[in-house]
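User: Sequence for EH domain-containing protein 3 below. Tokens please.
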Amino acid sequence: MFSWLGTDDRRKKDPEVFQTVSDGLKKLYKTKLLPLEEHYKFHEFHSPALEDADFDNKPMVLLVGQYSTGKTSFIRYLLEQDFPGMRIGPEPTTDSFIAVMHGEVEGLVPGNALVVDPKKPFRKLNAFGNAFLNRFVCAQLPNPVLESISVIDTPGILSGEKQRISRGYDFAAVLEWFAERVDRIILLFDAHKLDISDEFSEVIKALKNHEDKIRVVLNKADQIETQQLMRVYGALMWSLGKIVNTPEVIRVYIGSFWSHPLLIPDNRKLFEAEEQDLFKDIQSLPRNAALRKLNDLIKRARLAKVHAYIISSLKKEMPSVFGKENKKKELINSLGDIYARIEREHQISPGDFPNVKKMQEQLQAHDLNKFQPLKMKLLDTVDDMLAHDIAQLMVLVRQEETQRPNQVVKGGAFDGTMNGPFGHGYGEGAGEGIDEVEWVVARDKPMYDEIFYTLSPVNGKVTGANAKKEMVKSKLPNTVLGKIWKLADIDKDGMLDDEEFALANHLIKVKLEGHELPSDLPPHLVPPSKRKIPE
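Assistant: Structure tokens for EH domain-containing protein 3:
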């Protein structure tokens, strides 16, 4: 009696307690989502069951592109070190999937050995057979970059006549398997080869539902002039727009990702800024890894729920004795209508449903009578997980992020631009004059002094109202001018002397030239007479 009350009380008394996000994800998957997946044969239609290694593994970056777009060179550039099995050339050289991972001893582990290692997240690749496993290896080496992330190098996607030769395994399906488990997918394009072949188009479509993970790199951009680069960039965006059906524009990074001199150095600053943005994106992966796994589990749970409704609906429509085959054909052909009915009855978004054509093909090989009817207890358990347990894990995610705020990728190319004169923006904008003995503002101070003495200074200082009349001539917003005032008014007396006024004008010039203002005034910009004033 009052069993619903008892259930609610038990929830309050005995909530799920997780020590770490990883442990929580494992427990939720095994106890709440996996039973639903197994009951409705989810793994035969969509994705193999997840294992502990899928939750414990480091963030992974998947590189995809046509041959000779610089995928292997990109990895070499990041690591600043050769890795086992590496081959670089203008012809299709990488004919295997290479998982580049950290290991104390340098060496190669073949695919058949990889898929039986419980510590590696590749056991379920066994389903793709020997044709694939003979083309899959793990390159292990001690490298600081690989302590934080792993990188998956893929075979170059073929074009023209070559793409008609079968690989012996479902290439797009393998990439889709990796796409579900990686943290970032980088599509590489060569500035000279923008044509998207049929195989590449098929691959990009296989990455559907993972658009949030995709980044695009327009590589070898130093080999063309600025005017051509603009046209190439426009052509690439047009081509991607035809294949990637999203209203948002995919982020494209332009550069030359190898350690050779730039052939045409005109766009060096652009390449440096783009590289810095891409590096920041990759460096953030370890910090966001737990959130990504949580997000992927939620996506998987939503798909598993929809799959359960589809399978149970088909089972319900099937006759128990006569006319099974005809009814099966009829149901498969009207699968779109069944989707629409489920969508209406259960208020499910159309975007949560699997591809109709793919589902129709898969259903042909199954006996619909062996499907299971709707079991609400399993669905309620998953709903409970999404409504309560996931919220608790979100809190734990934030706690872990707070405890490890500096969890970023280090080493290799990531260290080359961190500090020193080759750091991005060093000696530019507010950083100009950082290494000079003289105060950098002194160069233009005579010009600023002329303006200063027209503003009726009293006791060597101009009031805020008078300074404002001059500063607003820059046409910068009040929010920006307010920040400049705070930086320039070093003694915080609400007025500016000649040095502070010169500094304010220097910062206005910095902003007008397109640079960002510093949050705190750098020591080299503090006027010489104020350098002993404690901040």
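The two ends are 70 Å apart (CA to CA).
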